[in-house]
């Protein structure tokens, strides 16, 4: 007679609520259990280690003839009672004169058993010793433990339990895609249990996504938030999560005390840390979005760094306070927001918060200034990547640098930061809108900054405004720069104003007016480099000089002065090539390509533009990548390849929108764009042009570059047939629109709400670039004819 799972011994607690997600983690635990007799689930408090262990244990019951036994250790305070607790769970009577360890070995050595030791973190030494003893003596025993810190036993395999998956809160996914996120599924399930008429809708979708993101995907926090649905809407919960510890205080009355509120859960983790680890937790909470060890060492006070710093950091990783992330060849550490907020609170209570923020600002100012000084060099891509990783910390530093105490004591610090980040980060990353927001705040707030830094900020903002295709704003900044320089009257200030005037004229399309100020600025820079001392910030000086050479090359070349353009290009290469620099080489190659295009040398223009495209992809410069795609589209149109031209114009347009600019920033090139669009549309017809253009807009950047360079061996873009543009449900809705059904009739046919039907119709119109239902009907008819043929 076969014994059922229900007949097997064991004491697993019943799962009172549904289990959500974790398919990957369950599979990983099973894989490790097949190779190791000890597996530990680690993770931050409230991340769901216990529930995951319970599900794995339940699924494993069939494999253990002598049962799966659950040993709850969370409430055990005396480690001397550990073996007794395990024995009591197994129902073993006390035998005077024999140790409990021996009693356990006698019982387990001949049995096929699985022990689950839950919540071991406060008894690590005792648990490690007992586990090692039992595993050595009991070959049929398997052990699964949960702990905020690994046991450190030989043969132990570790599964770090991450938070549940959450949607992107910056761009909430469509309603139908929300169920794939584990955190959303958990919130909806628990909220429905509390309030049966609760449902995820278009109206509350963004709020639920925001709740899950704000709570870092932590199951405990999400369950505590879902309880509030009885008295609040999802939007109200989201609004009140600023003070999450106060809001999330009502949990299960039968749960362990440490799990009844989010606050007590994090308190439990804090109490398990040594004094030094607690201090380090607080100080490291000053970081935003993660950090690297050099930053941690630079920001923490000397007494924390002097002795055992790396051991303390490693211990916080082991205790799941810090999360370790591998980013390429670099290891970064970070905290989920809930843990970080707790640390900030402790830092504030100690009176060290302002001191920590000040040290954070000073360290990141040094980092950015060092990046600026080494940027024209072989480490350019490394510095761009580092500043990419540090962007949240840089934003934190910039914001703090504008607070009143800092502005009063060091009015230049914000201007130094913004000017150093101008080319080294914002320009090469095409983060024009953000750069201008910081520049504007700097120019408005740091009014007492040194005139040198203020002049540099006005020049930088002139270029940024021009890159955004806002010539009036560029002209206003250039005029302010000129006025301030003339007040000062020194050659260096006038040089800065000339650079600004040159770019202002370039972006407004007055090529002739751009040449003279660029020439004057470059001549002045040359004289100063020959007779004067090296500039205090040589990195900024050289990037500005290279920018002036680029501006002069562009203006001269398009005016027909190819000799000057080539001479500027050669000077740029002479500076950048030995240093293995990419950003300015890419811009110079593209500018020289425009000169060749203007002269009618299409082949040379294409070669130079392709070279610029490869260099811009090396450093992931989206604006220059888009300019190159646009220029290559013009070449394809001239060679009689209108489909390729349309695809590339679409790709360029998508990149430009992504960075908040235009595919053609320089006014004098707009004619090439307009001509290419008109002639390509005429050659293909409106419908075919639209489809090819949409294909380009939907390509990834890498695919668009490969297509532009001919690395994809086809004369046609990757097929984007009608149906794949839409989801299955959107395609159904489009068919019903073509049949003439109203939104209400579509809702009745598909058994959905009229509001949902309206949302689907709007999505179809947006994806296809249409403005009317009639266009949808015509599109469906055309695609139906194509399928027939």
Automatic annotation (TrEMBL):
Alphabetized CDD domains for the sequence = LuxR_C_like (cd06170)
Identify the residues that the record assigns to the HTH luxR-type domain, covering every copy: 719-784
Record-linked SUPFAM superfamilies: C-terminal effector domain of the bipartite response regulators, P-loop containing nucleoside triphosphate hydrolases, TPR-like
In terms of Pfam families, this protein maps to:
AAA_22 (PF13401), GerE (PF00196)
Gene3D superfamilies assigned to the protein according to its UniProt record, in alphabetical order: P-loop containing nucleotide triphosphate hydrolases (3.40.50.300), Tetratricopeptide repeat domain (1.25.40.10), Winged helix-like DNA-binding domain superfamily/Winged helix DNA-binding domain (1.10.10.10)
Under the heading PANTHER family, the entry gives: HTH-TYPE TRANSCRIPTIONAL REGULATOR RV0890C-RELATED, REGULATOR-RELATED
Q: What is this protein called?
A: LuxR family transcriptional regulator
Organism of origin is Rhodococcus oryzae
